[in-house]
Amino acid sequence: MNGVEGVIHLAASKSSDFTEAYQGTVQTTKNLLSLLASHINCPLVLVSSFSVYDYAEPLKGSLLDEENSLEKHPAVRDAYAQTKITQEQVVRDYARSHANTVTFIRPAMIFGQEALWNALHGLGAGPLWLLIGADKVIPLTYVENCAEAIVLALESDTARGQTINIVDDELPTRATYTDSLLTQTLNPPKVIRVNQGLLRAIAALASGINQSILLNKAKLPGLLIPARFDSRFKSFTYSNTRAKRLLNWHPRYNLEASLKRCTLDEDRLFDGLT
């Protein structure tokens, strides 16, 4: 840490095993903070996630922004969400004794060349893609837009002590986004539309049977666990007002330009980028 003037912390585990995820997300964060503790004025940007929010609380269709509550029952969520929630708590404890040094960045689903098909717009099943809730908006941020926001957060004094969501201006429906991917994916999957309300009802039924009859002994897939289903597919509106105000951030690339850049090779991608 000698000579370091600022830290951007993006490291986290995506393992589905809780113990492994905890070591890769929470313990590594504690290790970093123990080194940072002696660097009193060193700014830290923690890159968190939309996964920390409590998706059971907001009404369907309501605004999801930085004022929303965090998940109150992390155990019902997957290992990634659980450990990201704990990671934020650990860093907030650190921030209490290191005032105005930490900025919390919560990106929406980040997409880019290596991450186009994602868990917020459906589920891959062999050669098929189950498109769930096709007409609902998906919270996205293009990787380059997000990266620029993170750098601005490190450089911004007004962002210290703040929590800031990063989500692009132009948010497509899942159908629009999926249709765009189909034109850019070599050997794309066959898309099958699934009714979101019906699948949510099946999840509630399966979860109820598991709790009341099977005493929670059945290991249900994520789509049949209501809390996990809602965190992926529940309908909201989104705002990037705080990011624009505190960071003077404006997404450089709209959806069309972002997806077009995803087809470029690396040399062309960064040609002329400042």
Overall SS class: alpha/beta
Tally the beta strands. Answer: 11
Give the overall shape.
globular
Order of helices and strands: EHEEHEEEEEHEHEHHEHHH
| Overall pLDDT confidence | 92
Strands ordered across the widest β-sheet: 1-2-4-9
Helix fraction, binned, reads: 25-40%
For the CA atoms, what is the radius of gyration? 20 Å
List keywords for this structure.
274 residues, alpha/beta, 4-stranded parallel β-sheet, 3-stranded mixed β-sheet, 9 helices, 11 strands, 37% helix, 15% strand
SSE blueprint and pairings:
Elements: E1 7-9, H1 18-36, E2 44-47, E3 63-64, H2 79-96, E4 102-107, E5 109-111, E6 123-125, E7 128-132, E8 140-142, H3 143-155, E9 163-166, H4 174-182, E10 190-194, H5 196-212, H6 226-233, E11 237-238, H7 241-247, H8 255-261, H9 266-269
Parallel strand pairs: 1-2, 2-4, 3-11, 4-9, 5-8, 7-10
Antiparallel strand pairs: 6-7
Helix pairs in contact: 1-2, 5-6
